[in-house]
Design a protein that fits this description.
The structure is a homodimer. Chain A has 9 helices and no strands. The first copy, chain A, starts with a helix and ends with a helix. The first copy, chain A, is mostly helical and about 200 residues long. The longest helix of chain A has 27 residues. Chain A has one domain: Tetracycline Repressor, domain 2 (Orthogonal Bundle). Helix content of chain A is about 75%, strand content about 0%. At the A-B interface, helix 1, helix 6, helix 7, helix 8 and helix 9 of A face helix 1, helix 6, helix 7, helix 8 and helix 9 of B. Chain B binds a DNA duplex (30 and 30 nucleotides) through helix 1 and helix 3.
DNA sequence: CTAAAAATATACCAATCGGTATTTAATTAA
DNA sequence: TTAATTAAATACCGATTGGTATATTTTTAG
């Protein structure tokens, strides 16, 4: 069984993660943390060295939640085409899920921390590269098994897909206009189709 | 001639704008403002009601700077195709300019303020809509003068262009990998080409 | 059941936060 | 050039910030 400290730590992260995603690292105060958890400062600082450590853990938690949602959305796809379209499908309805209502933790953290918070920026950077590699793998598998043309620019498409998704979430959230998601996802789908070997 | 107050106000905005773009509204303190300007609190609060008013003015200043840069980039384009390609060209070298080094004020403000700062969110929203309309106008002109096919989905492309640009800037900034800009801009250019008549 | 250990709460800290009232300095109109 | 006005500096305010030392409670091992 897990220790009390481990459970409390997980509890703090779970309760504060959405606060960090909504208000950002700087915007989230210790009182926000004690309020969200119902615990006191003593409990927080007994389990984390400082606010930054909570923020880092909350970031991992938030990003893991998004990527496991993505994995789930792809879990029933067999072909590479279906996997990629499951990704665009996932983001088409992104904001319908309560758990994603404060936007994308990647984009939120990227814009907040790029010039101010090296530790978090490094984590964001690593996650973007990992994400890109994941997309590249799906594409390469599709090429290998004959779903896609051999001359598909795998790296370029992975860049395009990530960038389009991130922009769509950011702009759609800021404007409350979902056509900023729908149209770009349609476009990505059409690019995927154009890669097909028929 | 302008009054002293007007000049000081402009001076404060000019000196603090990049601080706001770098650190955000919450992350920029009054001491950041006095430090950046060399003025005291008395001077700041003699010209602005509160910090929010400075933040709003700084946002307008930052966004105006980007869009006037964009306008300049397009100023020598005659055809609609050239105008749209001037936009992608502008963003290809975005971070080379010292004045844009802290990223896009639209994306930065969008992610920071969407859940926390109604006044700034409203401004961001309005600017996104205005930007989209501007792109639509260029496309419609191109259709009217026979540059583009008649069945081009103007609204969809405008959404795609804005979203792709914003995502490219955000991800490229966070990763320091410029291929997150180059590849998506190449794609946008190819889409523009595909809209061409004959 | 008890004693040691671990975890949480309480009480406190200096520093900084955004903001204001007042004083001093600079500008402007006569 | 002076008097009125405007602008900016100074000094202060209560509240909140992140963080710590200590006391108390809860958990855990024997």
């Amino acid at each position: 069984m897990s220790t009390k400290a481990e459970r409390t730590k997980a509890f703090i992260i779970e309760k504060t993660s959405s606060v960090f995603n909504q208000k950002g690292v700087v915007g989230t105060s210790l009182s926000d943390i004690t309020e969200a958890t119902g615990l006191t400062k003593g409990a927080i600082y007994g389990n984390f060295a400082d606010k930054e450590e909570v923020a880092l853990a909350a970031f991992e938690y938030n990003v893991d939640k998004v990527f496991s949602g993505l994995a789930e959305a792809m879990s029933h796809s067999v072909t590479s085409v279906d996997k990629l379209k499951a990704v665009t499908g996932f983001y088409r309805t992104y904001f319908a899920a309560e758990k994603y209502k404060y936007g994308c933790p990647m984009a939120n953290t990227a814009t907040e921390c790029d010039d101010t918070h090296p530790a978090l920026q490094a984590k964001v950077k690593g996650r973007y590269f990992k994400w890109r590699k994941g997309i590249e793998i799906i594409l390469n598998e599709g090429i290998a098994n004959g779903e896609f043309k051999h001359d598909v620019d795998v790296k370029a498409f992975a860049n395009l897909m990530i960038v389009t998704i991130q922009g769509a979430i950011v702009v759609s959230k800021a404007t409350a206009d979902e056509s900023f998601v729908a149209a770009p996802m349609d476009f990505l789908d059409s690019v995927i189709e154009s890669y097909r070997l028929k």
